[in-house]
Write a structure and sequence with these properties.
The chain is α+β, with helices and mostly antiparallel strands. It has two helices and four strands, in the order H-H-E-E-E-E. The longest helix is centred in the N-terminal third of the chain and has 19 residues. It is globular and about 35 Å long. The protein starts with a helix and ends in a 6-residue tail after the last strand. The N terminus is likely disordered.
Length: about 100
């Protein structure tokens, strides 16, 4: 019984950091910090202001097979158009 409680507590504690992560606001970060965060995490969903969210990936290989990667330009604290990484977009000729 004691090992079950210990295991349960460990699983709960392991889940806390993932649920505590909040959406970073790109406009409160420098462009360099935005790009570094994308490289560190592989993919990030940014709050770009005005209720808009933007998913940015570090490499187009993180997109679905039918998608390609296009440069992702989002606003940052020091630049109106910061090259943050890539955005996934449907390739021409794929889809409906």
């Amino acid at each position: 019984m004691r090992s079950v409680l210990f295991l349960s507590a460990a699983l709960i504690l392991a889940a806390v950091p993932a649920s505590a992560q909040e959406t970073p606001r790109s406009t409160s970060m420098s462009c360099a910090a935005v790009a570094a965060l994308v490289q560190e995490r592989g993919q990030v969903v940014f709050d770009t202001g005005g209720g808009d969210l933007s998913r940015v990936v570090s490499n187009p290989s993180l997109c679905m097979a039918s998608d390609g990667g296009a440069p992702s330009w989002i606003p940052s604290q020091d630049q109106s158009q910061c090259l943050a990484g890539y955005r996934c977009q449907e390739r021409s000729g794929h889809g409906n």
